[in-house]
Specification:
The chain is α/β, with parallel strands linked by helices and about 800 residues long. The protein is built from 29 helices and 18 strands.
């Protein structure tokens, strides 16, 4: 047996086996990478199928869409209604404004002074109606926000008006204001001796703990000061104890204002740990199964059964009837089945299921949504009414999910605590509420009022149908909403008729309404009467006009008008804020410098409008004889270019550019500044023409940079000519398009036809300058100051000045 003695010999001996081993190892690495990529690709694919695009689309749109306000004329006919209907609507708005001023005089005056500077109210007042209508509505219909007392389900304001409350104080009022006042007083009496002592707990906390555990059927409880704070705690604890970071929500569900559970608009933070899935979708269950090792918890707002895959209904976004829908009884039944399937999947995957019952807790049933749907969660969050009238938030959960420290790693903790948690006064009022809601009598009240309300819903819908009114009401227990059964752009106005009838609403308007358990038959009858009267008044004032058979107002026509408005204002505002507005000379939209333009109706009117604008242009910026002579030369060349462009683009653009420079020099050097008058003519002013000239100057430089060094002169000139043609089309078509968007197609064509025919009329008008130019004194007006005045956009008579004028100035 011989062994190799040199390194080369040893390497050659083992070359074969080493290559095989290396290849096999490389194959294993590639196989592992491909398997991982396939696994990740599968997860991404499954997630995309289940993810709701609504939050991302809405968030994207919120960063692009620009605000605008309809003026007084367009406000009342935004749906295409004729003038006679607009007059009825205007009269209806006037009547409402007078009624508001009379009914709420003291409240309005006080709200302007006492409440000035409260940003919360500035936010809610801005978000009552769709944004194009907000300006005029805020000016005319001031919603008072000051109240003095409550009497049963009625609220008494500063003027002494008694309004029937269906706002429910954002979900707090389940049992009736008088009950909460009693519970708050009793709670104070039981805890007042301790006062605001925090840290040590009042013994009443132990009673609350036992009752909450009995209701939630969970092991541990954590007290907080609001529902949002409680959600923050619950999510942090779930992530801490599962060692996972991904939080699953369902499209449209609201879980408080914390940005950690807001993937849609209202949150400026980049969200990477929230996954909004589709409600009631098998694909969502598959996504949970596929990503179970990443999911810290699945959060459900059980109220979503009322409007699956939609955000909480709000008059702010009630731009068309199609935006708001409510689930029927069959859908609600399917939602209950869906929750049971979700519970099963979460159990199989060992993913905590969390119910956000801040709103639904103790409203849908004494045991909340868990009792109503028959589904039990691993964590439940309560708030609002549980405080017995006091602010509170409560987290309930299984023991293994409520731990805030790691017994194996003493430095790893989830720091969740609050100064006012378990405040004695809150605990006292909460105790009074819990002692009532856990009694058999409370169950009977829930059942009785629930049956009355179901009967009321049917009665109201029957009367609305009998009166041929285009709306209906739908409910989920004591939560209800108004649904509009025909297309319309003004459904949001209904909230103001309801307020005028004496119904108290929250800032979300008719989107989410509530009745409390202290409603009696007389209250239901009064509510129905006010609801129907408000609907009749709104109908009679023309807000639900549907057009004529030959020109109907449909959902499609409304959507098209809204899309056009939003696209136009977004584009125009974006353009106005950039250099493009200066370059393309975009006219002012409002104010004294905004051009007035009436579209011509006939061919004769079109011709007269073109000629009128030519005369105005001549009077504004063509008074100098030298400028007229330069226009005569350039116009002659332009007329020739109209013929040569079809046979020799290069020569046409070269001579045309020379003509343009000559033409612009006449304006910028010899003509007095007249920026203000030129702005009223819809065309390019001298300042923007300087940008045009700059564009023509830069175009050949860019073209030459793109060409190689060995390209011949004529080939390069042809390339430059094509770039000049592109610049020409950009300026002409760009300005025409902006005029089309702002003034309509006919006015844009007036300007375009005027531009194209200017060379012909210039030759006819300015040919005498060929004789007078040689003897005129207009050559003396050429100064550097005059040129700078043009660039600065000086008004007429604001250009070059004599030394005496400068000294005086």
């Amino acid at each position: 047996l011989e062994f190799p003695t040199t390194p080369v010999a040893r390497a050659s001996r083992f070359e074969g086996p080493m290559t095989i081993i290396q290849s096999f190892a490389l194959l294993l690495v590639w196989a592992a990478l491909l398997a991982y990529a396939a696994y990740r690709g599968y997860k991404i694919f499954i997630t995309l199928l289940a993810t709701s695009p609504t939050p991302f689309g809405a968030r994207f749109a919120s960063g692009i869409l620009r605000s605008f306000s309809l003026d007084d004329d367009k406000f009342f006919c935004a749906d295409g209604a004729p003038e006679e209907i607009a007059k009825k609507r205007r009269a209806g708005m006037d009547n409402l404004a007078r009624s508001f001023d009379e009914q709420f005089a003291a409240s309005q005056k006080a709200s302007e002074t006492v409440l000035d500077g409260i940003s919360d109210l500035r936010f809610t007042d801005t978000n009552r109606v769709p944004f194009p209508f907000q300006k005029l509505v805020r000016e005319r219909l001031n919603v008072a926000t000051l109240a003095l007392s409550s009497e049963g389900p009625h609220i008494v304001d500063l003027d002494g008006n008694r309004s029937l409350d269906v706002s429910g104080s954002y979900g707090v009022n389940v049992c009736g204001y008088d009950n909460y006042k009693r519970w708050m007083e009793a709670g104070l009496q039981r805890t007042k001796d301790l006062g605001p002592v925090l840290g040590p707990l009042h013994p009443i906390v132990g009673e609350n703990l036992a009752m909450i555990k009995a209701v939630s059927k969970l092991d541990e409880v954590s007290f907080h000061m609001s529902g949002t704070e409680a959600i923050m705690c619950a999510v942090r604890l779930a992530a801490f104890n599962t060692r996972r970071k991904l939080v699953v929500t369902f499209a449209g569900a609201y879980h408080g204002w914390w940005d950690g559970v807001q993937p849609g608009p209202g949150n400026e933070r980049k969200i990477t740990d929230v996954l909004p899935l589709k409600d009631m979708s098998p694909a969502s269950l598959n996504a949970i199964r596929a990503r179970k090792d990443e999911i810290a918890c699945v959060i459900v707002n059980p109220l979503q059964g009322f409007n699956p895959n939609s955000p909480p209904p709000n008059d702010l976004v009630l731009m068309t009837a199609a935006i708001r829908k409510a689930a029927d009884s069959e859908t609600l039944d399917h939602y209950a089945v869906w929750l049971k399937e979700l519970r099963k999947v979460c159990t199989e995957c060992e993913v905590p299921l969390m119910f956000d019952e801040v709103y639904t807790g103790f409203r849908m049933a004494p045991g909340g949504a868990q009792q109503y749907y028959g589904v039990h969660a691993d964590m439940v969050v309560y708030g609002k009414t549980l405080g017995g009238g006091m602010p509170c938030g409560v987290v309930c959960g299984k023991k293994e999910l409520m731990r805030r420290f790691d017994p194996e790693r003493p430095l790893r903790v989830s720091y969740v605590i609050g100064t006012f948690s378990a405040h004695p006064l809150t605990m006292g009022a909460m105790n009074e509420f819990l002692r009532w809601v856990t009694t058999p009598e409370a169950e009977q009240v829930y059942e009785k009022v629930g049956k009355q309300f179901e009967h009321w819903i049917k009665d109201v819908n029957d009367e609305m149908k009998a009166e041929n009114l285009p709306l209906s009401v739908h409910n989920l227990t004591t939560v209800w909403t108004v649904i509009f059964n025909q297309p319309g752009r003004y459904h949001w106005m209904f909230q103001y008729y309801l307020r005028d009838e004496g119904i108290a609403l929250s800032w979300v308007g008719t989107g989410r309404l509530l009745v409390s358990l202290d409603f009696v038959q007389n209250d239901f009858e009064l509510l129905k009467k006010k609801l129907v009267n408000a609907a009749k008044r709104m109908r009679d004032d023309g807000w639900w006009y549907l057009g004529t058979p030959d020109k109907p107002i449909t959902a499609q026509s409304i959507s098209a008008a809204m899309g056009k408005e939003m696209a136009y204002n977004t584009v125009m505002k974006t353009v106005r804020e950039g250099l493009l507005a200066e370059v393309l000379c975009l006219p002012e939209q409002t104010g004294p410098r905004a051009p007035k333009a009436v579209p011509p109706e006939t061919l004769q009117e079109f011709y007269e409008e073109v000629m009128r604008r030519k005369e105005d242009d001549h009077a504004a910026s063509h008074s100098n004889t030298v400028n007229q002579f330069m226009h005569l030369i350039s116009s002659t060349i332009f007329i020739i270019n109209y013929y040569t462009i079809w046979s020799n683009c290069t020569a046409t653009m070269a001579t045309g550019l020379f003509s343009l420079f000559l033409r612009q020099s006449g304006h910028a050097i010899f003509e007095p500044p007249c920026h203000d008058e030129e702005e009223l003519l819809l065309g390019f002013n001298t300042r923007s023409k300087c940008f045009v000239v700059a564009g023509y100057t830069l175009a050949p430089l860019i073209s030459l940079l793109r060409l190689s060094n060995d390209v011949g002169f004529f080939y390069a000139l042809a390339s430059i000519a094509r770039s000049w043609l592109g610049v020409t089309l950009f300026f002409v078509l760009g300005h025409t398009g902006l005029l089309w968007m702002q003034y309509g197609f006919r006015i844009s064509m007036v300007w375009l036809i005027k531009l194209v025919t200017d060379p012909f009329t210039d030759v006819l008008v300015y040919y005498p300058s060929a004789v007078t130019v040689w003897t005129t004194k207009d050559w003396q007006t050429a100064t550097w100051d005059n040129f700078l005045s043009h660039l600065n956009g000086a008004p007429k008579d604001g250009g070059a000045k004599s030394p005496e004028e400068k000294k005086t100035q």
